[in-house]
């Protein structure tokens, strides 16, 4: 394996109708953008109402980038092109999102802290629902059902989500194991085979340990599914399938907060879909494991 930069896969695009949360998609993706794309993002975020009446040529002249770069920018955030960008911005300007992202400050009282944190979590769920592809979720179900074993990887703040995913998979009868140590991840990943599906959870998609483990698993023949935030990231180059969240973090709240809420909800949807796909076995296994766990209760 050479040390060359992995080729990143384009994000899935929608049809030509308007989509939700266009501005937030741009904000989430902007930190990983190249200079020209970031300049486009700055211009759109500063005056989205102006974009609605502009042509791609006019935006090109205003930002100093090529028309092709603008089209690539649109596709990079999951849009089919500039026209869909305009339609989506027009809809968002008329129907602004209910909650805005606010950072907590040292002077906030308890009521304000709770309001900001809860609103941020609610918005993360709304935004993540808008980018979660039901077709991709169905494919994930098929891949996991066809596998003999599922391995779940997570590091740092994603580790508790990985452990919860493992627990939920065991409850519905899947042969699953979780690995949250980076060294053990590398060993397990390198020993995978085509009968294994690896599910990696990484908000940034750029953590060296999880990127390396996902790459090793894929090279060993495993199918790879990644749950990551909506933006281009290195881990996507090694994913057979990506399930997106969209949690926008602010300066005080790190990825350990809103991202976990979004990740847990994606996992909940995946587990529910897996259980329904094999309803009889799943419900029987849930009953059996409930009986087993009952000895732990008074």
Automatic annotation (TrEMBL):
Region (Disordered): 1-21
Domain of life: Bacteria
Domain (SIS): residue spans on this chain: 140-280
InterPro entries: Homeodomain-like_sf, HTH_RpiR, RpiR-like, RpiR-like_SIS, SIS_dom, SIS_dom_sf, WH-like_DNA-bd_sf
Boundaries of every HTH rpiR-type domain copy: 20-96
Composition bias type Basic residues, residue spans: 1-10
Matching Gene3D superfamilies: Glucose-6-phosphate isomerase like protein, domain 1 (3.40.50.10490), Winged helix-like DNA-binding domain superfamily/Winged helix DNA-binding domain (1.10.10.10)
Key words, A-Z: DNA-binding, Transcription, Transcription regulation
UniProt xrefs under Pfam families: HTH_6 (PF01418), SIS (PF01380)
Coiled coil feature spans: none
GO BP annotation list: carbohydrate derivative metabolic process
Any one GO molecular function term: DNA binding
Protein name (record): Transcriptional regulator
Classification of source organism: Bacteria, Pseudomonadati, Pseudomonadota, Alphaproteobacteria, Sphingomonadales
């Amino acid at each position: 394996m050479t040390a060359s930069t992995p080729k990143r896969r384009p994000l899935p695009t929608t049809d030509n109708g308007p989509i939700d949360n266009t501005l937030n998609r741009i904000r989430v993706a902007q930190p990983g953008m190249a200079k020209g794309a970031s300049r486009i993002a700055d211009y759109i975020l500063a005056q989205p109402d102006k974009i609605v009446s502009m042509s791609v040529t006019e935006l090109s002249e205003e930002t100093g980038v090529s028309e092709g770069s603008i089209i690539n920018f649109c596709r990079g955030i999951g849009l089919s092109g500039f026209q869909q960008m305009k339609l989506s911005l027009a809809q968002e300007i008329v129907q602004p999102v209910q909650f805005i992202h606010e950072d907590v400050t040292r002077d906030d009282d308890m009521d304000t802290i709770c309001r900001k944190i809860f609103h941020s979590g609610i918005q993360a769920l709304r935004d993540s629902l808008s980018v979660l592809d039901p077709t991709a979720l169905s494919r994930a179900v098929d891949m996991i059902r066809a596998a003999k074993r599922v391995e779940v990887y997570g590091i740092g703040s994603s580790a508790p989500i990985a452990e919860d995913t493992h627990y939920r998979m065991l409850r519905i009868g899947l042969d699953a194991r979780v690995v949250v140590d980076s060294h053990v991840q590398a060993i397990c990943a390198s020993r995978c085979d085509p009968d294994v599906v690896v599910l990696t959870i990484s908000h940034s998609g750029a953590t060296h340990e999880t990127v390396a483990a996902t790459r090793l698993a894929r090279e060993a023949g495993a199918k790879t599914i990644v749950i990551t935030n909506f933006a281009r990231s290195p881990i996507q180059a090694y994913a057979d399938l990506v399930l997106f969240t969209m949690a926008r973090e602010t300066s005080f709240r790190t990825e350990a907060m809103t991202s976990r809420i979004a990740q847990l909800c994606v996992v909940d949807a995946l587990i529910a879909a897996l259980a329904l796909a094999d309803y009889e076995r799943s419900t029987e296994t849930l009953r059996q494991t409930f009986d087993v766990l009952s000895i732990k209760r008074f």
